[in-house]
Amino acid sequence: MQGRPLAPRAIPGDVGVRALVDEFFLAYNAARLREACRIFALKMLEPDVTVGLTISGALTPAGLGPAAFVPLVEAGFVDWIVSTGANLYHDLHRTLGFTLFGVSPQVDDLALRRDKVIRIYDIVFDQEVLFKTDLFLSEVLKADEFQHRMGTAELHWRLGRYALEREKALGAAAPSLLGAAHLAGVPIYTSSPGDSGVGMNLAALRLQGFEVGFDPELDVNETAAIVYGAKRSGGKSGVLILGGGSPKNFALQTEPQIQEIYGLAERGHDYFIQVTDARPDTGGLSGATSQEAVTWGKVDPVQLPDTVVCYTDSTIALPILASYALGSRKPRPLKRLYDRRTDLVARMRADFLAKK
């Protein structure tokens, strides 16, 4: 027989997260989460690996921005991000001094509507939180520095500076992901920028004659250049995928973009970790496995042992994985990929044009 003997001891009352994962996450998706923790902490966080994080699902309203994303960014454990725009919009609420509340999901939604209360499953907040966040975004995006067409990384980096200023002014106890990424030079991309409160407010400004706008083609080139630069310099690329959806595909399509569209030699991402509740048999991208991704060139087939899909809720897996990693590894030097975007694209462009 090959494999790991399943011979657990009794769980002590004072067990830490690392011991809990290593010794008591024994089988099924607990074991997959153990594999994800170990691949992330022991392999993906090596100095030569560029780590991309994708975020889908309503994770920032649940408080996982200051609880998990910010510590991972500050520790240098995340180098670039693809997020839904909604997560970045809701990331601003606490920065602006608003409070979100946890309740039972068994509530009267008609009564909530009457009382102007917004619900995200078991999270509620006053409707004014949306209106005042919209007002903040609208005023910020009118600034001269936003009056041009830009990639989402630039827009979020500039927005992060304003988030930091509000945190300082209000003494906010919960730091924002946008602010932390601004300080760390971590670029944040949104694969569908119009599909959120940020995009909705930007659209309203366009109707008023402001020039602020997105450049999605630049996002495609920048994200591909980040992965290409990591691999061409002799390093590796890893992706940590929370949920699925558009952010997952946008991060993974970097490899087909390099290989298929640019015609540059590459083999795929070296590490692939996904936490999802989506099934693969429905054919959706959210449930597609790393083995299926190999057929697209998204994942290096040689690296399949370093890929894992854990079928559970991201709100369960992320705090465990973050704690495991932060307790296992020292902080890494910041790669500051935001500052290097232009150079990375120029290098990839030169190789692309030479190839053609």
Provide a compact summary of the structure.
With 356 residues, this protein is of the alpha/beta class.
What characteristics describe this protein?
356 residues, 11 strands, alpha/beta, 15 helices, single chain, globular, 50% helix, Deoxyhypusine Synthase, 3-stranded antiparallel beta sheet
Describe this structure in words.
The chain is an alpha/beta fold and 356 residues long. The chain has a single domain (28-355), classed as Deoxyhypusine synthase (Deoxyhypusine Synthase). The chain contains 15 helices and 11 strands. It has helices at 17-24, 28-44, 64-74, 85-95, 109-114, 127-141, 152-170, 177-184, 197-207, 216-232, 245-252, 254-261, 290-295, 314-328, 337-355; strands at 49-55, 80-83, 101-102, 117-120, 123-126, 149-150, 188-189, 213-214, 236-242, 271-276, 307-311. The strands form 3 sheets. It has a 6-stranded parallel beta sheet with strand order 7-2-1-9-10-11, sandwiched between helices. The chain has a 3-stranded antiparallel beta sheet with strand order 3-5-4. The chain has a two-stranded parallel ribbon with strand order 6-8. A hairpin with a 2-residue loop joins strand 4 and strand 5. The model has no long low-confidence stretch (mean pLDDT 94).
Indicate the structural class: alpha/beta
Distance between the first and last residues' Cα: 52 Å
Question: Beta fraction of the residues?
Answer: 5-15%
Oligomer: single chain
Quickly give the CATH architecture.
3-Layer(aba) Sandwich
Strands in their spatial order, largest beta sheet = 7-2-1-9-10-11
Number of strands: 11
Low-confidence stretches: none
What is the overall number of helices? 15
- Using only C-alpha atoms, the radius of gyration works out to 21 Å
- Overall mean pLDDT stands at 94
